[in-house]
Write a structure and sequence with these properties.
This protein is mostly helical. It is built from one helix and no strands. It has one helix at residues 4-41. It is rod-shaped, with a radius of gyration of 18 Å. The termini are far apart.
Length: 42
Amino acid sequence: MVTIETKIVAAKQIKSFDVNFHQLTFISSIFIFTEFSEMIIH
């Protein structure tokens, strides 16, 4: 039997994971962009 409290905790964990995932994709896209622009400059 899953209580409402457990669902709230699970939802918070999923949300924080989602935020971390978005930050990871954002950082990696910046990294790819800088590598790409360095290739163009050189």
